[in-house]
């Protein structure tokens, strides 16, 4: 076993109260390679390595220093304490409208289950007639497309008609895609069962469990832990709240000062954009790491603990890799597993591995651009260029060289992370500034008329 696997094994011993032998762990992986009881890599590293725990403490200290810096700045410049609350309040904006959109998405996801039950009840009688069953399959696929079209189309139409604040828009659009992927996973797994093939359909309780479970791959059963550790749940939610403040401090103190006046001038110099990009590199990487930790470590582990979901391997140690192919598989295993099972594997035998890989990258980049365009109110395909073009080109470049020169290409990957996040953050601020400029011009036109 590698050092990380060894620490994960010791973490499993601490979690269950008794150790499993290596042979038992190996047999368990053979039985179900997709899911098993295991902790997240960072959970294992923080619990078992004093060095990683010290790095964690360093990030906590940085948060405290940003807090003190913001408090002092607010007292000196404004005479009152803000501590980033204005950025958070502006970011979430109209929470009521965002909550209503999420409730619509959730009701569509719940409505899918009785529709599936009704389809299965009719399908058992239709299967006796081959021609009728073929038409019934087409009817089922059409119904699924309509339901997912409504789930995705209505929020997109609503957000395009009237802009919603950034954080609320990101939440609504990410949940839109998450629930659509959940429905698709259940439909693919349970479609043949509607005609009496395979085990019976899942219960409503298990379906709701899957809706909230931190996975996009459907199974009739998941490995479960013995109990919910509510102290761990509370700790992870505190981490989520702390990271929200962390990002608000980064934006207010290091990013917004460079972009607050952007777009107000009649002409923008190229040097201003370049200087802003380099100014956004370090806070951009910090924001990227905070976002990764917030969603894939704190948020998903909190829900896994509440639901006693045993498999916490939501990501792997992507920070050590020297190949982009492994990075894309390791950085977000939750989404990667869905793309692998429901996009890459069905396409690869028909279109080939190269074209299937390109389709996966294109769909992923397009989904990211939809989230950003609806959240900022402006289409600016920087992320699509980085994912769909540069990301694909990096696969063959680092495939062999990454193995031959792991240290050099790990350095190269981190360099690309720094510049990539700086570019994305610059583009996001530029699109936000342009959006505000356009709105200001439209308001001026309306007032003059």
From TrEMBL:
Membrane-spanning ranges: 54-76, 97-116, 136-157, 201-218, 230-251, 276-300, 354-380, 408-427
Bilayer topology: Multi-pass membrane protein
Domain of life: Eukaryota
A single GO BP: cholesterol metabolic process
Location in or out of the cell: Endoplasmic reticulum membrane
Molecular-function annotations in GO: O-acyltransferase activity
Entry-linked InterPro entries: MBOAT_fam, Oat_ACAT_DAG_ARE
Keyword Acyltransferase: yes
Keywords: Acyltransferase, Endoplasmic reticulum, Membrane, Transferase, Transmembrane, Transmembrane helix
A GO term from the CC aspect: endoplasmic reticulum membrane
Record-stated family: Belongs to the membrane-bound acyltransferase family. Sterol o-acyltransferase subfamily.
Name used for this protein in its record: O-acyltransferase
């Amino acid at each position: 076993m590698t050092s990380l696997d060894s620490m994960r094994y010791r973490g499993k011993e601490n979690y269950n109260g008794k150790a499993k032998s290596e042979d038992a762990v190996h047999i368990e992986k053979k039985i179900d390679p997709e899911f098993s009881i295991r902790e997240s890599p960072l959970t294992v590293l923080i619990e078992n390595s004093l060095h990683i725990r010290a790095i964690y403490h360093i990030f906590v200290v940085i948060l405290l220093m940003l807090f003190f810096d913001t408090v002092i700045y607010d007292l000196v410049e404004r005479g009152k304490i803000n501590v980033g609350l204005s950025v958070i309040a502006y970011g979430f904006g109209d929470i009521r409208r965002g909550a209503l959109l999420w409730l619509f998405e959730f009701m569509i996801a719940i409505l899918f289950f009785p529709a599936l039950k009704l389809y299965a009840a009719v399908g058992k009688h239709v299967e006796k007639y081959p021609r009728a069953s073929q038409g019934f399959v087409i009817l089922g696929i059409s119904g699924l497309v309509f339901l997912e079209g409504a789930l995705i189309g209505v929020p997109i139409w609503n957000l395009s008609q009237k802009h919603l604040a950034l954080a609320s828009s990101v939440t609504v659009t990410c949940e839109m895609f998450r629930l659509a992927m959940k429905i698709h996973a259940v439909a693919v797994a349970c479609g043949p069962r509607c005609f009496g093939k395979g085990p019976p359909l899942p219960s409503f309780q298990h379906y709701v469990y899957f809706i909230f479970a931190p996975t996009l791959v459907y199974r009739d059963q998941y490995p479960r832990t013995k109990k919910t550790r509510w102290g761990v749940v509370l700790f992870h939610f505190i981490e989520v709240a702390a990271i929200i403040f962390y990002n608000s401090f980064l934006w207010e103190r290091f990013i917004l000062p460079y972009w607050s006046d952007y777009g107000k001038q009649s002409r923008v110099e190229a040097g201003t954009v370049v200087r802003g990009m380099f100014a956004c590199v370090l806070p951009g990487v910090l924001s990227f790491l905070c976002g990764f930790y917030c969603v894939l470590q704190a948020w998903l582990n909190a829900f896994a603990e509440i639901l006693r979901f045993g498999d916490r391997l939501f990501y792997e140690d992507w920070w050590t890799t020297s190949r982009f192919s492994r990075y894309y598989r390791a950085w977000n295993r939750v989404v990667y597993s869905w793309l692998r099972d429901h996009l890459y594997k069905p396409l690869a035998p028909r279109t080939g591995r190269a074209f299937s890989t390109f389709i996966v990258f294109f769909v992923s980049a397009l989904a990211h651009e939809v989230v950003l365009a609806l959240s900022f109110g402006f289409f600016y395909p920087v992320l699509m260029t980085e994912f769909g073009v540069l990301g694909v080109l990096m696969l063959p470049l680092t495939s062999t060289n990454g193995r031959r020169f792991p240290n050099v290409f790990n350095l190269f990957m981190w360099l690309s992370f720094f510049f990539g996040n700086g570019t994305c953050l610059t583009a996001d601020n530029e699109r936000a500034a342009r959006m505000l400029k356009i709105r200001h011009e439209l308001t001026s036109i309306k007032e003059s008329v």
